[in-house]
Design a protein that fits this description.
This protein is of the alpha/beta class. It has a six-stranded parallel β-sheet with strand order 3-2-1-4-5-6, with helices on both faces. Strand 1, helix 1 and strand 2 form a beta-alpha-beta unit. Helix 1 packs parallel to helix 5 and helix 3 runs parallel beside helix 4. The radius of gyration is 16 Å and the shape is globular.
């Protein structure tokens, strides 16, 4: 498919690309993070080259654990405490000057944050999501974006689920909400740069 993006009204959102929860200590289970990292780095580089607004999120909980709510009722253990080094952004995908960094206490990037105020200020109507987990924070952010009448895309080979069944089910659910929502990192790179990514070039 050919992905068409209006670069004047599109933002890239990195959902919880954190050192421990996604790429490090294994507190939370994730699929295929080693495989998705090179793709995510290409996407971030392309977005920076195109001067898209880039918004980084990380989930953070107080050391007293009073803000977890119902998050620990299911399979998830304690995670992302503010005192843990592993809660910080993963170093290769961390925000740089000119990019936006927002902490959240819940799964959705919209819940209890100023994301919508920021998107309005940036005149954004389309968000492109990548990160972890596909079936939790990415999915819930996509659903909230949809209910707020934003267009959204999810870069499926830049996302990691809690397991493979949950990963694929979440992607199917997001595509159900908006036809064409699911894209690959090569689609995004070509859409914002007008050029195929190196990985795509090598496959031809």
């Amino acid at each position: 498919m050919t992905l068409n993006l209006n670069l004047n009204s599109t933002a890239l959102i990195l959902v919880d690309m954190q050192g421990g929860s996604v790429f490090g200590d294994g507190t939370l289970p994730h699929t295929s993070t080693k495989e998705t990292l090179p793709n995510a780095k290409q996407v971030l580089a392309a977005a920076r080259a195109a001067k898209l607004p880039i918004i980084h999120f990380k989930e953070v909980h107080r050391k007293e654990m009073v803000d977890f709510g119902r998050e620990l009722d299911g399979a998830e253990p304690v995670h992302c405490l503010e005192t843990w080094e592993s809660t910080n952004y993963y170093w290769e995908l961390a925000p740089i000057d000119g990019e936006f960094a927002i902490s959240k206490r819940r799964y959705s990037c919209f819940f209890g944050t100023d994301l919508e105020i920021l998107l309005r200020g940036l005149k954004v109507d389309t968000v492109v999501l990548m990160g972890g987990m596909t079936n939790v924070c990415v999915h819930y952010t996509a659903a909230d974006a949809h209910q707020r009448d934003y267009h959204f895309h999810v870069i499926e080979d830049c996302c990691s689920g809690s397991d493979w069944d949950a990963h694929w089910a979440a992607l199917t659910a997001m595509e159900y909400l908006q036809t064409g929502a699911r894209i690959f990192h090569t689609d995004f790179v070509e859409a914002v740069t007008g050029e195929r990514s190196p990985a795509l070039q090598e496959s031809l």
